[in-house]
Amino acid sequence: IRKIAPKGSLEIHEEAWNCYPYCRTVLTNPDYMKDNFSLIVETWHKAGRGEIENVHELSKDQLKQREVIYIDIASDPIDPASYKEDEDPALFTSTKTGRGPLSGDWRATVDPVMTCYKLVSFEFKWFGLQTYMERKGIEFNRNLFTMFHRQLFCWLDQWHGLTMVD
Q1: Could you report the per-residue pLDDT of 27-66, keeping only the tens digit for each?
Q2: What is the spatial distance between Cα 51 and Cα 47, in angstroms, rounded to a whole number?
Q3: Phi and psi of 24, rounded to 5°?
Q4: CA distance from start to end of the chain
């Protein structure tokens, strides 16, 4: 594809601001699509079970357009080719904390719990491809977030207790 793709069309520029509990990542294609492509992911990490209705402080018009997607790292389907038994929250138990496995209505019962509120804004302004690409972009991000948070939970014993120095 690189040999036939126009110059700059396959290059993605990433800017990221990681200032826990807030993070923002912006992907663009400035050399080819210019202002016609952007993927922005804004994340708030908050204590609780996902009960904050408008953590990103969206306007009324933005709230009407927003689609809320809940991700269940223990039971949402994943691509079978990506499945790893040692990265399955429904099977994992932390030796350091005793957390896990996650089963049933775990989101209502586990403690402590934190919610990652992610706002994904995706624009792909290209006639004939816009709706398809934006749908695929959102689907890709949902799968990415599901896999990442499954791994984060199952790798708990590797990072729990670390300090900033570590």
Answers
A1: 999 999 999 999 999 999 999 999 999 999 999 999 999 9
A2: 10
A3: -140, 130
A4: 41
Beta-ladder partners of 117: 44
Q: In this structure, what token pair is assigned to residue 40?
A: 């922005």
Angstrom distance (rounded) from CA 11 to CA 32: 8
108: Cα within 13 Å, side-chain hemisphere: 2
Tokens of 92: 């994992």
Half-sphere exposure of 144 (CA within 13 A, CB side): 9
Are the C-beta atoms of residues 122 and 39 closer than 8 Å to each other? yes
Helix, strand and coil percent figures for the chain, each rounded to 5: 25, 25, 50
pTM for this model (two decimals):
0.89
* Residues 47, 28: Cα–Cα separation, whole Å: 31
Residue 131, C-beta contacts closer than 8 angstroms, at least 6 positions apart = none
pLDDT tens-place string over residues 71-111: 999 999 999 999 999 999 999 999 999 999 999 999 999 99
Q: Which two tokens stand for residue 114?
A: 């934190």
Q: Pairing mode, if any, of strands 34-47 and 114-124?
A: antiparallel
**Burial group, residue 39, by CB count within 10 angstroms (0-12, 13-18, 19+):** buried
